[in-house]
Every structure is written in structure tokens, then in C-alpha cells.
Design goal:
Blueprint lengths: L18 H18 L41 H15 L2 H21 L8 H26 L1 H7 L12 H22 L1 H19 L9 H27 L8 H20 L5 H6 L5 H5 L1 H25 L6 H21 L8
Helix pairs in contact: 3-4, 3-8, 4-6, 4-7, 6-7, 7-8, 8-9, 9-12, 12-13
């Protein structure tokens, strides 16, 4: 899933047919990537203009020269092969999605603790870290199962991913996703009770039907974006806050800040869901995967996603103005105004408008 940071470079030939075309493409890609970088919408750079590129394949620097991890007959030292395997497994986890999961979890846990500082105990530290590990396992399962069933598409759209690049075997990938699912379910069931376990299981189920045939809901744009928004938006935030209050011995109840955080992140997840396929139009069309980008066009979806983000920032500023008792105006207003102005500036500069199909 996508609902997350070293770019993959493509070497241009010495003769470029159109300098203007190259400038527009570079500006569009860098500008759009810079803005959406932190929320995991774009993990690597992709070609967005029809500029000829060298036939010589380029590999990310994180991939060693010899990518046959554990290949039979290899003369490479065991230590190097172990390091290669570790690197492939780490890329398999899609680190940018882990950062988003961890950041959202820390925010909700911190919110619950700020509200009840008198209930904080050192004994809860182990439970907190076990919960974070369970979330990482759930995230690893979802992004992993997607890579297993998207090998052909990834060879076109994301050739740097470990299975598509030949750095991780399908058998090893299956071992990892099974481990993630079992470990996550065990940790949640043992530490957080049946209700949180049911939410966690629902998240794994939605991640499964998103990628796995015969349902493979990623083929249907509306279903795909609803699944991503639900898992990365509502389920993550509601579940973490509920589990934190339960660990503190408190019954669940909504508060204005928590409603704000959950709503804000859910809309962010909506943006992720509709724009995550912008760089993948070529492979999705080739393998008949219907996305908003393939149906409505890259430019239209870029504007739609940016519009939703702008609305998110504006509503955040209004919430701080009209609910001063619940929010720190000195922080919320300047921060979201800065984000909104940055987005508008990119529109005026043509970064988003310069994206081509």
C-alpha cells in the first residue's frame, strides 16, 4: 500500500532533443516530490516526460553491484551476502511507510499522555514499544504482500524494489510476510485485548484484499482509495489512541484534538490514495490496473490531491481560530499557513501544472 528516501536517478544521453522539455520535467518532478515527500506519496523519482534515457540500466546506490542475494556458486564473502540480504529486507519494508506509521503512533500516544500525565508509568514502556513493533509488522505485511503480487508491474514502475530487482526471492518474501502477520497478531492479542486485535485483523484483511486475487481491489479506484484511507487514516489513529487509553486504565472518549488529528490524517491518507499512482501510469496501463491517474489523467489528479491538501490546511487554521480553548494558536496557525502558502507557491510556479502524462 502504499496508504509513504533516496531517489533513483536516470542518466540522460549526451544529446537531449529538447532542453525546454527537460527543464519542465525536472521542475515538475522535483517540485511535486518535495511537497509530498514527507507523507510518502512519492518514494522515488520517475520519468514524467518523454525524454530519451540511456539504455544502460541504473541501480540505486543502496543495491550492491552483485544483486544475487545468496545466489548459488557466489564467491562473495558471507558477510557481504548477509549485508545484501539485510539491505533487501529493509527495502522490502518500504521505510518511508514505516516513518509515517511511527510518526502517527507517537503523535496519538503523546496526545493521550499529555491529557493524563499523572497516569504515566515506566511499566508501560515495554507495552508501547511492543505496540509499535506490531504496527511495523502490520505495515510490513501489507506492503510486502503487495510487492509479491505486483512483481510484473513493479518491473515497469518500481524496478528498484527488491523482488522486482532480483535481490529478494519470492520464497523469502513469503517467509517475511507470514512472519509479520503472525508476529503482529500474537503481540496485539497478547497485550491489547480482543477489540484492538479485531481492528488489527481488519487492517490486515483490507491490506490483503487490496493486493491478492481474485478480489484485488486495487483494480478499482474508489475501493482502493477507501481501503488506504481507512487503514492509514482512521484505523491507525483510532486504534492507537484507544489502546493507549486502555493501557492507562481509561475508557475511550473522543476529545477535540484527537478528532482533529484523526480527521486531518484521514484526509492526508485520501490524498495518498488518489495520488500514489501518479508515477505508475505506464505500468498500470500496461497491466490494466485502473487508477484515478489512468482514468482522469496525471494533471487532473495532481490538482485534485493538492486541492484536498489546501482544504486540510485551511480547515486547520479555522479550527485554531474558532476553538482557542482546544488548540495552541501560536503553533497551529503559523504552521498550517506556511504549508498552505508553500502549496500555493508551487502552483503559481508551475511545478504541479508542468506534470505531463
Amino acid at each position: 500500500m502504499e496508504l509513504s528516501l533516496s531517489p533513483t536517478a536516470h542518466r540522460l544521453p549526451s544529446t537531449i532533443p529538447s532542453l525546454k522539455s527537460a527543464i519542465v520535467c525536472t521542475k515538475a518532478t522535483l517540485g511535486f516530490s518535495t511537497y509530498f515527500h514527507s507523507i510518502g506519496l512519492q518514494h522515488h523519482q520517475h520519468k514524467c516526460c518523454s525524454i530519451p534515457v540511456s539504455k544502460r540500466p541504473q541501480r540505486p546506490t543502496s543495491i550492491r553491484a552483485c544483486t544475487g542475494v545468496g545466489a548459488a556458486g557466489s564467491d562473495r564473502p558471507l558477510v557481504e551476502r548477509i549485508l545484501d540480504l539485510k539491505d533487501a529486507c529493509w527495502r522490502f519494508l518500504r521505510p518511508h511507510t514505516i516513518r509515517g506509521t511511527a510518526l502517527g503512533s507517537f503523535a496519538l500516544v503523546a496526545r493521550a499522555l499529555i491529557e493524563h500525565t499523572n497516569l504515566i508509568k515506566w511499566s508501560l514502556l515495554f507495552k508501547a514499544f511492543s505496540g509499535l513493533f506490531a504496527l511495523i509488522c502490520g505495515n510490513g505485511y501489507i506492503v510486502g504482500i503487495n510487492q509479491i503480487y505486483d512483481i510484473s508491474i513493479d518491473k515497469v514502475n518500481k524496478p528498484y524494489l527488491p523482488i522486482a530487482a532480483g535481490d529478494l526471492s519470492v520464497q523469502s518474501a513469503w517467509f517475511l510476510v507470514i512472519f509479520f502477520a503472525v508476529a503482529g497478531l500474537f503481540i496485539v492479542g497478547f497485550n491489547f485485548g480482543p477489540f484492538i486485535l479485531s481492528l488489527y485483523t481488519l487492517g490486515l484483511f483490507l491490506g490483503t484484499i487490496y493486493s491478492v486475487p481474485p478480489l484485488r481491489m486495487k483494480r478499482f479506484p474508489v475501493a482502493a482509495f477507501l481501503i488506504i484511507a481507512t487503514v492509514r487514516g482512521f484505523l491507525l489513529n483510532f486504534g492507537v489512541y484507544y489502546a493507549t487509553r486502555a493501557a492507562l486504565g481509561l475508557a475511550f472518549e473522543w476529545s477535540s484534538p484527537v478528532v482533529f488529528i484523526t480527521t486531518f490524517v484521514t484526509f492526508f491518507a485520501l490524498v495518498i490514495a488518489i495520488t500514489k499512482d501518479l508515477p505508475d501510469v505506464e505500468g498500470d496501463r500496461k497491466y490494466q490496473i485502473s487508477t484515478f491517474a489512468t482514468k482522469l489523467g496525471v494533471r487532473n489528479i495532481a490538482f485534485l490531491g493538492s486541492g484536498i491538501l489546501l482544504m486540510n490546511y485551511i480547515v486547520s487554521v479555522l479550527a485554531a481560530i474558532y476553538m482557542p480553548q482546544d488548540f495552541r494558536r501560536w503553533l497551529l496557525i503559523p504552521a498550517h499557513m506556511t504549508f498552505a502558502i508553500s502549496l500555493i507557491y508551487q502552483f503559481e510556479g508551475g511545478e504541479v501544472g508542468g506534470i505531463n502524462e
